[in-house]
UniProtKB/TrEMBL annotation:
Domain of life: Bacteria
Pfam families cross-referenced by the UniProt entry: DNA_binding_1
MF GO annotations: methylated-DNA-[protein]-cysteine S-methyltransferase activity
Keywords recorded for this protein, A-Z: DNA damage, Methyltransferase, Transferase
Species this chain originates from: Oxalicibacterium faecigallinarum
Gene3D superfamilies for this protein: Winged helix-like DNA-binding domain superfamily/Winged helix DNA-binding domain (1.10.10.10)
InterPro entries (alphabetical): MethylDNA_cys_MeTrfase_DNA-bd, MethylDNA_cys_MeTrfase_DNAb, MGMT_N_sf, WH-like_DNA-bd_sf
One biological process term in Gene Ontology: DNA repair
Keyword rRNA processing carried by entry: no
Listed name of the protein: Methylated-DNA--protein-cysteine methyltransferase
Coiled-coil regions, chain positions: none
Domain Methylated-DNA-[protein]-cysteine S-methyltransferase DNA binding, residue spans: 78-162
């Protein structure tokens, strides 16, 4: 059961088929989106940006072709931002490997994986579309095959009609 404290951490919470998405906002921007287990329950938005983000998350869950247009806080290093821009360019229904992204930005796959795991805006920056050369890869700094985060990654790829994962 969600405690009152857990609910206060987020400006809104959207329930999903895989659990929930927590939305944090401040200063007119989305500061973070967080994948949450099903113990978190829907929370109405506390401000206009959170309401906009919750609406757009719901639209994506209804239609994987929906494109996000949210005001995002400026976060991350220059390198992370370069990786996130490459990830944001991956079309729905397609995946690239960590190595593909690394070659495109002249970096190393492990560094790309670390930047993927540090993504503050999953769904908007679709890091679930980045996989290992030999399979699913990790997700949100987790590689537990039966864990929550890889379950979310599988759900998102299936939602976007990506085969094989």
């Amino acid at each position: 059961m969600q405690s009152a404290h857990q609910g206060r951490l987020f400006s809104a919470i959207v329930e999903t088929s895989f659990g929930a998405v927590g939305i944090r906002t401040a200063d007119g921007a989305v500061n973070e989106l967080v994948y949450l287990p099903s113990s978190f329950h829907e929370k109405a938005a506390t401000d206009a940006v959170a309401e906009q983000a919750a609406h757009q998350v719901t639209r994506y869950l209804d239609d994987p072709d929906f494109r996000f247009t949210l005001p995002l806080a400026t976060v991350g290093t220059a390198f992370q931002q370069k990786v996130w821009a490459a990830i944001a360019a991956i079309p729905r229904g397609e995946v690239l490997t960590y190595g593909d992204i690394a070659r495109g930005i002249r970096s190393a796959p492990r560094a790309v994986g670390q930047a993927c795991g540090a993504n503050w805006f999953p769904l908007v920056i679709p890091c679930h579309r980045v996989t290992a050369a030999g399979g699913l890869g990790g997700f949100a700094h987790s590689d537990d095959e039966t864990g929550f985060h890889l379950g979310v990654k599988r759900w998102l790829l299936a939602h976007e009609r990506v085969q094989g994962y």
